[in-house]
DNA sequence: AAAACACTTTACGTTAACGTAAAGGTAAAT
DNA sequence: ATTTACCTTTACGTTAACGTAAAGTGTTTT
């Protein structure tokens, strides 16, 4: 092995640990299985280089993984996530493509905006539920104190 | 049939159409299949009454369906959605249960808050991408105008 | 009376996103 | 030298959330 493997072999690794990671480094950091990471590579979402037979993940892969998991938390499919995070790197060169790109951006923005509205509605509804709940709680405690 | 089925049989239906719906009414309104609605009933998320062999959905069912679909847009599983919308009706009677209920509420709130943060990060990143993109676009048009 | 229509149940099929062995390579520690 | 540790590929299994017939029931239109 050559990257993080033991608990005591970390000292002289710090200089380049900021840019290279084993599959286990990332799996531990983000609390996913190695299977998941390999699956994401298979889907073209991560592109680690190979050193011998092993995968070496770059800082860019790590950032992408973070974006993937964020997208998952928001309920996007991996296909949608690919579309989104590819926009971070893509940046087409032609004017026509660029304009089409801006349209896609706008659609994603609208999608996210809808989710944001959904969340805010849910949050305010939970506020209402909580208010009713706390009211009943104090009522019950008062009733108990009265008897 | 007795509820919405033809295009011309609507006139004398309006008085009680606000509180009763066929499966097709809801499917059309929310753009889901009847299969989906039956599946949600099967999962205990909707509880239509039966009139003869047919399902009759109440206003409460309709509201629940709206909540279900909102939950889905936010990436919640049906199990999570059940937990959430059950909180709208549940409201336990015991003090201990009520306190536990408030804890669950708090967890849901934290979950939603995380999603909200995720969305806002993504939105601001898309802002940045768009800014770069628009900059390049004007640059390219300037370059084209110069030659 | 027959055809068309809307609904029903039952049941097998499908897709995404992994889980879970199984079988093997290579390097470090014993 | 062999055990241990970590990685690899290959491949079948699993779950959620429906899709998709197939076959039947009851009304309503023709």
From TrEMBL, chains A, B:
Name by which UniProt lists this protein: MerR family transcriptional regulator
Q: Which Pfam families match?
A: MerR_1
* Keyword hit for Cell division: no
Domain of life, source organism = Bacteria
Q: Which InterPro entries does the record cross-reference, listed alphabetically? A: DNA-bd_dom_put_sf (IPR009061), MerR-type_HTH_dom (IPR000551), MerR_fam (IPR047057)
A Gene Ontology molecular function term of the record: DNA-binding transcription factor activity
The protein's matches in SUPFAM superfamilies, at most eight in alphabetical order, are given as: Putative DNA-binding domain
Q: Give the record's keywords alphabetically.
A: Coiled coil, DNA-binding
Annotated HTH merR-type domain residues: 20-87
Q: Which residues form a coiled coil?
A: 95-129
